[in-house]
Amino acid sequence: MTEPLRVIDFGCCSPLRSQTLWHAVGYGVSAGAPTTLSFVRPADPYVCVGYHREIDEVDRAYCRENGLPVLRRMVGGGPVYLDADQLLFQICLPASAVPPLRSQALRMLLGPALTAFRSVGVPAELGEDLEICLGDAKVCGHGAGQIDAAVVVCGNLIERFDHERAARVLALADPDQRDQTLALMRRFVAATPVDPPAFQSALVAAYAGRLGLAAVSDELTGVEHAALTELDERFLSDAWLAGPRRGREEPGTGPVARQVKVRAGVWTLAATHDGARVAAAVVHGAVLEARLHDPELDGAADQAERALAGIPLASVARVLADFGDPGRRLAAAFAAADPGRL
Amino acid sequence: MEQAEHAMVDGFSLALDRCYQAETHMWVLVTDPGRVRIGMDPVGIETSGTLAQLSIVPTGTELAAGRPFGQLEAAKFVGPLVSPVSGVVLELNDAAVADAGLVERDPYGAGWLIEARLGRDDRLAGLLADPTEITAWFAAKIARYRLDGVIAL
Predict the structure, then answer these.
(1) Vertex A50, ends A241 and A59: CA angle to 5°?
(2) pTM here?
(3) ipTM reported for the complex, 2 dp
(4) 20 to 30 A Cα–Cα from A133, which one of A114, B40, B48, B82?
């Protein structure tokens, strides 16, 4: 007899429950509940940060003033803006059923989502970076993690995307970086306004087919209800929101940088060094646009900015060497870029 | 600390001066009587992908063999660091927590994760300790992972 794929549609829920419900499923599957595909739509907008990310990456003052809760999830990735125009989905299964190589596990568990997008007329692709894309644009965010003995991979159907707000909730270094982050989001993050019930049905069929399971609508178990109570409390605690302990960063004397990833290979950098300030949009290793400030640049900023357009990051210092001491300071600020830490 | 005795097994470095937990690829090095250093071997790291973030429980936390003592994130995937021993965390490697790449670059050396005092009854039970046995296990695991496409040929 075919094993079940439990399907739970939580419907429209509070921001808190739009996270804690599926985390509770993680504990349920760990305790023996069947592999589960769940859906939830946040009733109200909020911001959600990945397990390891600094809460300071979010503009908490803006969120407070605008009534946006900030929650920390147990899966990876960066801070994201979520609202009622996004249908969140999660596939949760025993860790023992998942390949040990994480990229292989992600490919296996994102594959059905790709199938579902195609079933509803979105010719998406799963890139080498394991993002579901349509052309240059990411159309489905994802994160993954192990909750107790279960692996969960979550994603979203973005029916409409509020790029302005998604950029606004981030704590960014200056208006230049905010402009560039928003511009990159507009170009590299796209909505796919398909029929949500059709997408849900396609997703259920795709996961059931891929995992060899029979889809059955069901509800939370007693274990999961108990976990939900605990998770509701945990996720609202200051200690949880602060995040796990990270290494002590020694205060350095080098450039100060703020990097924001928009999608794989697409990010912004804002950095200062000795009075020089740079903001740059970077796409696949090359500068798309740079904005440069230095007290001694004496009107050459436009020329330097034009010179950097399209230049690989590795060549920035060589190009800026033509601009004397200001160029050297700006190059030092650029040197703070560390794509490995995005 | 003395230079570890290493072997190369099918392209992966293997330190033979320590014990291993076969499922999790965590190594355990006795540094003093009752005190151990714990880290992850290169095959475990390879299956994780490029390490992005690392978090570890504070010093003084009780460790239970088979239970997590931290989390590791790679490719937006957060997974547990599972303790191979029971005991108490004495020290964290702050350098590795601040720069998870250190674990990849020097898994048996500067990329260690924690030091712990062993529990009274913990005698490294269930760990592989014999170099011959360790080498055979490591080679078999690599062969299986290659066969399954988990690691590159």
Answers:
(1) 65
(2) 0.92
(3) 0.86
(4) B48
